[in-house]
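Per reviewer request, we include the raw input and output of the structure prediction for the construct analysed in the revised manuscript.
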Amino acid sequence: MKTMQGPAIFLAQFLGDAPFDTMENACRWMADAGYKGVQVPTDNPVCMDLKLAAESKDYCDELKGKCREWGVEIIELSTHIQGQLVAVHPAYDTAFDAFAPTELHGNPKARQEWAVQQVMYAAKASQNLGLDRSASFSGASLWPFMYPWPQRPAGLVEEGFKELAKRWRPILDYYDECGVDVCYELHPGEDLHDGVTFERFLEEVDGHARCNILYDPSHFILQQLDYLSFIDHYHDRIRMFHVKDAEFRPNGKSGVYGGYQGWVERPGRFRSLGDGQIDFGAIFSKLAGYDFDGWAVVEWECALKHPEDGAREGAKFVSDHIIRVTDKAFDDFAGGEVSVETNRKMLGLA
């Protein structure tokens, strides 16, 4: 068996104001909080120059060295924002323009081409950094049709997944050339948001070896999906892990869909680690049983708690939950020597 690595933290939700105004300050703060690694959002120039990282191994070596000086290591790259733009339904064009450079606003075709190039850069940058997996979103053209009313015409869903696979297949092939997995975070708002949609996509890309999963149970409890059984079904594709808590408390006025309410008011909301309903003891046990050897990465999102408190508590929470796997059975002391003769005698076959 293998022992999970951690704790690490996703920097995306923290970067901005001091003490997270520079990569150095953010890394030093996280190291002081108890983190060993950082998952880096590649859309934020505060963290890195993604194009340069794809072109220069020397730049990547220097960046790795600086992070180690600051107390952490870069463990994974994220293209969540760029991946979202690989496929966008026109209903969301205006909203998602904010994810792209200003000069691309109002030009969905150019925006999509830019996004694909960005995701490709992350493959080479990961290779240059010595990383073998990267996180992303799938994007979505089908999300407006998530609920089957009005009735979906025959073939609509199939056509949507064919198009998504067509867009991602060259990206997956390039990631394969670079020796890097794409780990899709299964997330509402994406065409890949649960096990069934992941299977649909996986079939369309012919079971591509680089098509994998970033497991985040918080998105599953909000969908009322069995997040433990999910691991049993897809453990061979789970290559990354976001440790994020959530709670679902339906009431007489709203449930899974949330009534267009904000995060504080809606029945399903994200919480800091330990404040929600997710059974992380069972999750860490299952992943250990399936030999998950990746990083346990805190993704802090909470409607109530201050991020600095959530981050500090999260480092200890993950450290306390990582299972250092045993190299022997607990009852080995009571065993005898291996003997075919003894075994046959015990079976009455001697």
